[in-house]
Amino acid sequence: MIRLANIHEIPKILHITRSCAKEMMRQNIFQWSEKYPIKELFLQDYQRNELYVKELNNIIIGCIVLTSQIDEPYKTISWLTPDYNNLYVHRLAVHPDFQHQGNAQKLMTFAEEFALKNNYVSIRLDTFSNNKRNQKFYELRGYQKVGKVYYLNQSNDPFYCYERLCNK
Question: Domain coordinates of the chain in residue numbers?
Fold first, then answer.
């Protein structure tokens, strides 16, 4: 089940993202760290009703943020659609113990259905340039690479921006 998160679940969400960060670092993918994602971001996501969790047998195993707010670095990208009525996906994570079981696919399907139901024009996101697995994941779902942004507080390497049109 995927649902809006409760505020008391933020420590569990942080545990998931920190576990993901450790697993990525083990694979020499330095995408997340103790600097990102942080509790304050998840609190903001929660307060805006944009933070969702995936449960399995009453255990939170993943999260995703769905927002209509464009991040400042995204304003430099030549997107496929105008900056109007777009859904942005951030902080998608599945605890390493539950990866390779289709849980990230289910979270993205939820995001895509949410976008259609709410009449968004497109879905936009970014993923780390050194995370080839994530790039393939999004490309196989029909996302097109449209540019790159830099988050210097996370890495000197770029993050690739992707967009997928919402087909009704």
Answer: 2-165
For domain 2-165, is the CATH number 3.40.50.150? Answer: no
Residue 63 CB: number of other CB atoms within 10 A? 29
pTM passes above 0.70: yes
Per-residue pLDDT reduced to its tens digit, 92-115 = 999 999 999 999 999 999 999 999
pLDDT band of residue 168 (cuts 50, 70, 90) is low
